[in-house]
Amino acid sequence: MYVFFTIFAHNLSYFAMNKTEKYQLLYEQVKALLNKENDEIANMANVAALIHETFKFWWTGFYRVIDNELVLGPFQGPVACTRIAYSKGVCGTSWKEAQTIVVKNVHDFPGHIACSSASQSEIVVPIFKENQVVAVLDIDSERLATFDETDKEWLEKIVELF
Ligand code: SME
């Protein structure tokens, strides 16, 4: 009974957390994970899983810059496009502009690449090494206008941990 109550209370407090509180917890979890492991793929896999589980997004994953193309990396969610050219789609644009792109409605973004017809809004955050974009974090939502300045701010802080 005590165990049941403890788990129930924990879940209740989790559901009561607002977006910033969830990101604060997520940030500490990512920091702890990345402190223990240097392998980039292993870290991307766990970070994708953590973000995806925390917010129950539609798709959460990484594309890495390899030979002047974005190549699909670790992700959670449905099967996705494997390669994206420089400046194409939201991911290629984020790479080109070297900045985060928040898309409230993917149908309004010229050149958006629809890996899944369920995706309605999206955020793409570039990851830098020595001032070069080496990868992007891409998150899709099946609802419109899911992402805002809070997501941008925290996801940028999280990818800085790589
Ligand atoms: N929508 C992205 C393509 C990647 S998938 O969403 C996973 C884009 O336009 O670049």
Kindly describe this structure.
The chain has helices spanning 2-15, 19-36, 40-55, 89-97, 149-159, and strands spanning 59-66, 69-76, 83-85, 101-103, 121-129, 132-141. The chain contains 5 helices and 6 strands, in the order αααβββαβββα. 42% of the residues lie in helices and 25% in strands. The mean pLDDT is 93. With 162 residues, the chain is α+β, with helices and mostly antiparallel strands. The protein has one domain (2-160): GAF domain (Beta-Lactamase, 2-Layer Sandwich), CATH 3.30.450. Bound molecules: methionine sulfoxide. Methionine sulfoxide binds next to helix 4 and strand 6.
Bound chemical compounds: methionine sulfoxide
Number of helical stretches of at least 4 residues = 5
CATH H level, superfamily name: GAF domain
What is the ordering of alpha helices and beta strands?
A: HHHEEEHEEEH
Overall morphology? globular
Average predicted local confidence, pLDDT: 93
CA radius of gyration is 16 Å
SS content category: alpha+beta
Quote the CATH topology.
Beta-Lactamase
CA-to-CA gap between the ends?
41 Å
* CATH class categorisation: Alpha Beta
Q: Strand portion, in percent?
A: 25-35%
Record field, number of beta strands: 6
Please sum up the structure shown.
By secondary structure, the chain is an alpha+beta fold. The protein is 42% helix and 25% strand.
